[in-house]
Q: What sequence folds into this?
């Protein structure tokens, strides 16, 4: 009589086990997948929502850094609709995915860019126009051509990139003025500077700020804020600007905000600049020999003019008795140790003293985003460029806020740009006796030291006798003379 009871217990246990297995299979049922863009790049952070008529509660998840997602705890045999959404991409819906145990529930989703492919548009004086409809002469630079260029100024990024547009530096000093020639000299006053228009506002190309120095007005701009540059080269494109645009118009458009989540961007670089090729000069020993030969030639010529006999071996005292007190034919006494081949003497390379490896760096950060009604672009920039000539440099701090908004049927916007520029100048133009640092360095004797034994600047250690030209120590001139301008615009 115990067998039926035992059999009944076994049946109950089997039913419990099978029921638990079915529940486990149902609770572990899931749909897996991968989300990429149209190029196959994995998209992380994509929102995936699963809905079903047979399951009233939506299930939500997001993709990981490899674009993978997993929808879990699905009902066996139910059909699900998966909705994929991501900022900057079109929403995509995959309908009627059957969740069934024992089968692979894996899918691959490719999202498409939300932005439509627009025809290329050019900015002209009167507004914008499709590129295919433009018959005037216009040179263009886009964001990709500008933003990744390692320069603290916009002028370098423009150099050599636009047909018919010449960008010329008027000085090698950092932050110095430039000349942009669009059509050459086209006015009776021989002016060649174009009109600059930034975000639709004409900007003056200032010359010197009363300092006698020409600065680059484009320094007010952060290179990474520029979205495009259009150079209007003929009269029809720039007609709206009248005579101001007679030498062409450079139209610069800065970046604006756009709808979507806030995006923080950083762009920066650091490096070193140096003069790639220096002028080959004699060292102190070669210089001493050159002076010795020149003085001897002068001495022999004077002897011949006076019908006298002498030798290049004659000392200065002998020469004085024969030709008089003509120091141009005397051998400078400070050169005698070099002529005798003594070692460990002063041998100054003056180019090395006034030229240097100059660091350059620029760091920009921007915040860009917006909603349906307000869009913003905010940026900041720090740039520092030391000159390859000692004592020169350029540093600037720049901030920009571009706002665009809509209210009802009205549109409004503002652009605010503030720049603090510090210019450090040294004289690098003119002859050496005009205190030109570079040409003075080339004129200095390599037998003269930069500093005296006590560390002070050497100005007259060997005096300037023997009919030698006088020149000021260029290192002292660069380091002791201060010529700076701090400008806020």
A:
């Amino acid at each position: 009589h115990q067998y039926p009871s035992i059999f009944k217990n076994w049946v109950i246990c089997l039913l419990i086990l099978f029921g638990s297995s079915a529940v486990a299979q149902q609770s572990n049922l899931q749909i897996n997948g991968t989300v990429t863009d149209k190029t196959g790049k994995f998209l992380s952070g994509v929102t995936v929502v699963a809905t079903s008529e047979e399951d009233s509660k939506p299930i939500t998840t997001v993709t990981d850094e490899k674009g993978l997602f997993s929808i879990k705890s699905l009902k066996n045999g139910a059909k699900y609709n998966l909705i994929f959404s991501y900022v900057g991409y079109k929403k995509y819906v995959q309908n009627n995915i059957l969740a069934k145990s024992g089968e692979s529930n894996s899918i691959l989703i490719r999202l498409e860019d939300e932005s439509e492919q627009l025809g290329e548009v050019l900015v002209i004086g009167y507004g914008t126009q499709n590129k295919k409809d433009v018959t005037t002469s216009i040179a263009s630079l886009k964001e990709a051509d500008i933003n990744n260029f390692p320069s603290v100024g916009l002028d370098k990024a423009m150099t050599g990139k636009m047909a018919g547009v010449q960008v010329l530096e008027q000085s090698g000093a950092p932050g110095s003025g430039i000349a942009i020639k669009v059509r050459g000299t086209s006015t009776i006053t021989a002016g060649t500077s174009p009109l600059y228009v930034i975000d639709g506002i004409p900007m003056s190309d200032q010359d010197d700020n009363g300092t006698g120095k020409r600065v680059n007005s484009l320094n007010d701009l952060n290179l990474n804020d520029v979205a495009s540059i259009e150079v209007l080269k003929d009269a029809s494109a720039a007609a709206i600007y009248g005579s101001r645009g007679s030498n062409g118009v450079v139209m610069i458009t800065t970046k604006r905000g756009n709808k979507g989540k806030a995006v923080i961007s950083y762009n920066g670089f650091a490096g070193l600049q140096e003069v790639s090729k220096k002028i080959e000069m004699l060292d102190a020993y070669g210089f001493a020999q050159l002076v010795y030969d020149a003085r001897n030639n002068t001495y022999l010529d004077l002897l011949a003019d006076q019908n006298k006999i002498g030798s290049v071996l004659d000392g200065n005292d002998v020469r004085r008795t024969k030709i008089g007190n003509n120091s141009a034919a005397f051998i400078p006494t400070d050169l005698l140790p070099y002529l005798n081949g003594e070692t460990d003497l002063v041998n100054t390379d003056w180019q090395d003293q006034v030229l240097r490896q100059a660091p350059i760096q620029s760091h920009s950060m921007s915040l860009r985003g917006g909603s349906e009604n307000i869009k913003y672009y905010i940026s900041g920039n720090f740039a520092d460029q030391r000159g390859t000539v000692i004592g020169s440099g350029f540093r600037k701090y720049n901030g920009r806020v571009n706002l665009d908004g809509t209210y009802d049927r009205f549109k409004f916007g503002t652009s605010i740009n503030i720049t603090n520029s510090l210019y450090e100048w040294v004289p690098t133009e003119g002859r050496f006796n005009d205190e030109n640092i570079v040409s003075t360095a080339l004129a200095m004797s390599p037998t003269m030291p930069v500093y005296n034994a006590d560390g002070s600047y050497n100005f007259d250690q060997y005096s300037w006798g023997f009919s030698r030209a006088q020149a000021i120590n260029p290192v002292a001139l660069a380091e002791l003379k201060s010529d700076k301008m701090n400008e806020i615009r």
